[in-house]
Amino acid sequence: MLPGDDVLATFIERLKGVNDPAELRTIYGAAVETLGFRYFAYHLVKVADLGDRLPYAITSYPEEWISHYVSSGYLLEDPVLSEAPKRHVPFAWSEISLPDMLSHKQRTLFDEARDLRINDGFTIPIHGRNGEFATMSMVADGSERERGETMMRHRHLLHLMALTYHNHCSGILIERSMSSPRSKGLLSPREREVLSWTAKGKTAWDISGILSISEKSVEFHLDNCRKKLNVFNRTHAVVKAIMLGLISID
What we know:
Number of domains: 2
CATH superfamily of the largest domain: Transcription factor LuxR-like, autoinducer-binding domain
Number of strands: 5
CATH class of the largest domain: Alpha Beta
Low-confidence stretches: none
Mean pLDDT: 84
Oligomer: single chain
CATH topology of the largest domain: Beta-Lactamase
Strand content: 5-15%
Largest sheet: 5 strands, antiparallel
Radius of gyration: 19 Å
Helix content: 40-55%
Strand order of the largest sheet: 2-1-5-4-3
């Protein structure tokens, strides 16, 4: 058995019977880490009858970056997300990050991501039946030369792993999304207010001062948002609330 076969076999075995997003994140993160990748992001973008930008993602990106990405409005500016549906094979971010191809905000996005060592990534588009679409993105470790070699060496294996992961996770995430609130009335005005300030990068302490409530009250409202949106942390609650139109970052 080749080393890649062993990684794939172990990965498939670990996925069996798992339906918790936090555990699914750990499993994929551990698998790609052995291959030389620092971060990954799986995004279930579109499912038939549920529209575009299905609000579910599993990622190992730092919370600091996810929060900044959302509060800066990069979700709708990210050239990777715009390019992926046009592709049918994995592509390196370097293919779409030439300065003359990007807007000022997109160049800023790549510059800020690079500061957190989120660079030289590549994305695997996943086109399913009936227009279903998802992406798997990964960021390699090491020097520029090493990152390029890592991506090329494991390109085929990672494609197989991404398809396997999608086949396992998509049904689980679709079920969770379909059970999620789609009306502003399902978050109280205070919960939307607290979550909106969180989306703008404010801490619980900051929000307590802005709204003249205790920090404990802010935490209480954020925890309620997390539970109502059926997510596992407040950053994901912000992302999901924005995608569902429950809050705005304008």
